[in-house]
Write a structure and sequence with these properties.
129 residues, alpha/beta, 5-stranded parallel sheet, 19% strand
Length: 129
């Protein structure tokens, strides 16, 4: 599995990179939205974990780019108020509120990937009908 983890806090990035690589596989990090956009256009990822408040590019644009590449997105946000999406915003595949534990990150990744696999299977069945 290849994970993209993006957050503006470089210490958090390093910590989670080590933990994610141990449990989930290759992890690539980015600390701003421009890096995320570049990585999404040059590499393939199984899932992206993105802080909602990345600098330089807003999370809506990043989610749209990830959706175009069929990369499921879990948005990391600051509390329950940050979990609400406006009607015109692209909807991420999952959300996780700070503070979170490593186990909750792993659970969010697994749940999101399982949900997306189910969604892909349903779409494939519809195409065959």
């Amino acid at each position: 599995m290849k994970v993209l983890f993006a957050a503006p806090d470089r210490d958090l990035l390093e910590c989670y990179k080590k933990l994610l690589e141990t449990d989930l596989g290759e992890t690539v990090t980015a600390f701003d939205g421009t890096q995320v956009i570049t990585l999404l256009s040059t590499e393939s990822f199984d899932i992206a974990l993105l802080d909602r408040n990345l600098p330089r590019v807003d999370h809506k644009t990043i989610i749209e780019r990830a959706n175009a590449k069929n990369v499921p997105v879990v948005v990391l946000t600051d509390g329950p108020a940050g979990l609400r999406n406006k009607a015109d915003e692209p909807v991420p595949d999952g959300m996780l509120s700070y503070p979170f534990t490593f186990d909750s990150v792993k659970d969010a990744v697994r749940h999101t990937l399982e949900s997306n696999i189910g969604k892909e299977r349903k779409e494939a069945v519809k195409k065959d009908e």
